[in-house]
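Worked example 2:
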Amino acid sequence: MKYDIYDQEGDFIKSIWEEHGKEVQYFRERGLRYNTKE
């Protein structure tokens, strides 16, 4: 699964893959939004 990361303004930052679970946690802790794609 792919995560598309966005900042608080809704601007796209980057995409990361599920293996980078620590990165997803990092963005969650900072309140950044992300979309998932299968």
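The longest helix spans residues 21-29. The helical segments are 21-29.
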